[in-house]
Amino acid sequence: MPQYGDYQNAIYLAGLSGVVPEWPVDHATLRARAAAHWPASVRDYVQGGCGDEATQDANAAAFGHWGLTPRMMVDTARRDLSTSLFGRALPSPLFMAPIGVNGICTDDGHGDLAAARAAAATGVPLCASTLANDPLEDVRAACGDTPALFQLYTPRDPDVAASLVARAEAAGYAAIVVTLDTWVTGWRPRDLNTGNFPQLRGHVLANYFTDPAFRALLPQPPEQDAQAAIMTWAATFGRVLTWADLPWLRSLTSLPIVLKGICHPDDARRAIDAGADGIYVSNHGGRQANGGIAAIDLLPDIAAVVAGRVPVLFDSGIRSGTDVIKAVALGADLVGVGRPYCYGLALGGADGCAHVLKCLLAEADLLMAVDGWPTLAAVREAGARRTDR
Ligand SMILES: Cc1cc2nc3c(=O)[nH]c(=O)nc-3n(C[C@H](O)[C@H](O)[C@H](O)COP(=O)(O)O)c2cc1C
Ligand SMILES: O=C(O)C(=O)c1ccccc1
């Protein structure tokens, strides 16, 4: 059972010898350092969001109005953060949310493989995006023994969709995460003002370019005419899914299917009734629709409806280990982090990414130690209280 808080001791001990951490341990400094490292186009794409970014900001700020209540005289000398997903043991509830431009987060263009290596090093699963700069088979292999999830942006062409899912199953992914909120991209002023749209430069299309069903749509292979291949991809991206499509998705795979982007309890109820194997509460980090309620504020009502029948995954606004614990307290089984791990990739590749994950886990673990919760079940039982009403 890893004692994640030991990462703090390692930093202090190194400090005794005059060694300071190579990368920051807090989100604000990490974010600023990554912003200074990246070209403006990458910075704006990753850090930006929809409209005036009110929902994006609210996602993080809303953790502030949920409070935890410590309990004393409990033996928390050892903490157990372990859990499981679809029968696979996991050392903690943390996972890496799917990020379509991981590739461009690192200087070498292989951020997807770097994130996968961080998964292998830490045991924190990666949910690999359809839109990756490295083929899904290579990404899965680089995850080593750590389970991985495959996020599907469902192409309009059903053969391409079926092929991507079949490849993910053959490659050994543990589940298919179908994103529901991004068949079209939201209104993103930072990118619009610069005409910056990374996928149209082909950075994220390795899974398509290597796909036999996609290649069959092209008059010439992508190696000969990349621009035409990118335009064909743009024409097939973004199937509008409805509940009527779920049986078809189900028919493509025997893997568990998780629906990402659920924000309403009635949608969670309907998803379970229709056979979804997992509910993923997320508003896409405020990148898709502005004007929404902070994701963490949506979680308790959805968790109540799900009532343990299927796992509840959560992301949007996680910036610290304390946020991870609050999400568990409010009903998440697994907690996804998005932008922060991109910052780690930028500053230190796989090692920088692993550092960010270890910091989140160390803070979560130390919070459990101090506040009297030896297990995630104890965190869940303690819950969190809204402090602003
Ligand atoms: C640069 C970037 C690219 C993303 N690409 C995808 C993607 O390919 N598929 C997907 O389902 N979600 C994608 N997301 C959304 C994340 O999976 C996640 O929902 C969000 O980042 C969580 O919010 P956070 O960044 O505040 O932690 C992306 C987010 C960012 C920041
Ligand atoms: O930017 C995003 O949020 C996202 O999901 C995406 C969409 C297309 C290409 C790359 C990422």
Automatic annotation (TrEMBL):
InterPro entries: Aldolase_TIM, Alpha-hydoxy_acid_DH_FMN, FMN-dep_DH, FMN_HAD, FMN_hydac_DH_AS. Its cofactor is FMN. Residues 19-389 form the FMN hydroxy acid dehydrogenase domain. Glyoxylate binds at Y45, Y153, R188, K260, H284, R287. The active site is at H284. The keyword Electron transport does not apply. Gene3D superfamilies: Aldolase class I (3.20.20.70). This is Lactate 2-monooxygenase. The lineage of its organism: Bacteria, Pseudomonadati, Pseudomonadota, Alphaproteobacteria, Sphingomonadales.
